[in-house]
């Protein structure tokens, strides 16, 4: 079977995320995207079948890790990375062919968590058998716990941010009904949608747009910046973020993906499972704490924004 599939550059535009982990951008997408195009053109393989393939390869890498010897560790690391490449391909094939489904997203998420758990236990069990060091038992629990913490934290932060944005939008709708004000835009969306632009210029444009909106309410959107305090405290973040976004790399440099690769690829390849796991776990925790701190400052921006709407309501009522 041969589907009518666009050229590779167009496939990249359709399938690759605007922001992704640096490991994926630099080491996976250059391989996965051409394979996605070839898979879509030449086969009837579905995204769910690719998800199953990634899961089975992940289980195979767990068996190799359990054998413990360095030669098997290298083989396990290679197979794990092949599993991760397939794991990145399923979503890309779904976007390219329009075969995505809610169940497929659930299956991908569940299989990812099982793969990390099984590989973590197998890797540390193999090293325990090899060395007799009980520390590996605790490392197995740490790998599973940190992976779970990362995804729970990510989900909860997303829910909180969504709740804050929803409340602000409701306040703006109330204000528009009362005062016929302009539409609403969030600064983070403006910056995310235009990663090629200079962020300092984006901020200035946004401030100018807000000033125009105050003078002519229907001509420009009102901009709400829920990361204003964080940016003011860490101005270098803006330049760093701008540079990374131009290369499609998100600022969360040590996420669940980099953590997995540190534990299941770098550690086995250099035969330093213990230290690679400890360093990867410490870096993951550091970046998770940074995200929580950023959320804390965002809640302060949120409170000030809500208070500003309340103050404007009081002024409007007094007038």
From TrEMBL:
One of its GO terms (molecular function) is transferase activity. Pfam families: CDP-OH_P_transf (PF01066). Its EC number is 2.7.8.-. The chain crosses the membrane at residues 20-38, 50-66, 249-267, 273-296. InterPro entries: CDP-OH_P_trans, CDP-OH_PTrfase_TM_dom, CDP_ALCOHOL_P_TRANSF_CS. Keywords: Membrane, Transferase, Transmembrane, Transmembrane helix. Belongs to the CDP-alcohol phosphatidyltransferase class-I family. This is CDP-alcohol phosphatidyltransferase family protein. It comes from Streptomyces aureus.
């Amino acid at each position: 079977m041969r589907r009518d599939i666009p050229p590779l550059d167009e496939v990249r535009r359709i399938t690759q995320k605007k922001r992704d982990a640096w490991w994926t951008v630099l080491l996976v997408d250059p391989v996965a995207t051409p394979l996605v195009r070839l898979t879509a053109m030449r086969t009837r393989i579905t995204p769910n079948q690719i998800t199953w393939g990634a899961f089975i390869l992940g289980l195979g890498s767990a068996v190799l890790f359990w054998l413990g010897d360095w030669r098997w560790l290298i083989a396990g690391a290679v197979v794990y990375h092949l599993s991760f490449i397939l794991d990145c391909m399923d979503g890309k094939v779904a976007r390219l062919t329009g075969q995505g489904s809610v169940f497929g997203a659930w299956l991908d998420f569940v299989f990812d968590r099982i793969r990390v758990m099984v590989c973590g236990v197998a890797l540390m069990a193999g090293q325990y058998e090899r060395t007799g060091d009980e520390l590996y038992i605790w490392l197995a629990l740490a790998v599973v716990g940190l992976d779970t913490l990362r995804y729970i934290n990510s989900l909860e932060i997303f829910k909180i941010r969504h709740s804050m944005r929803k409340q602000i939008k409701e306040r703006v709708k109330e204000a528009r009904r009362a005062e016929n004000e302009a539409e609403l835009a969030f600064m983070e969306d403006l910056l995310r949608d235009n990663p090629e632009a200079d962020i300092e210029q984006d901020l200035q444009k946004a401030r100018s747009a807000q000033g125009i909106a105050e003078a002519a309410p229907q001509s420009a959107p009102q901009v709400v910046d829920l990361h204003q305090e964080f940016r003011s405290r860490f101005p270098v973040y803006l330049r760093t973020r701008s540079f990374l976004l131009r290369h499609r790399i998100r600022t969360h440099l040590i996420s669940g993906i980099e953590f997995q690769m540190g534990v299941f690829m770098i550690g086995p390849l250099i035969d330093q499972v213990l230290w690679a796991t400890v360093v990867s776990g410490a870096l993951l925790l550091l970046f998770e704490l940074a995200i929580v701190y950023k959320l804390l400052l965002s809640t302060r921006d949120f409170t000030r924004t809500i208070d500003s709407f309340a103050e404007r309501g009081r002024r409007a009522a007094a007038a």
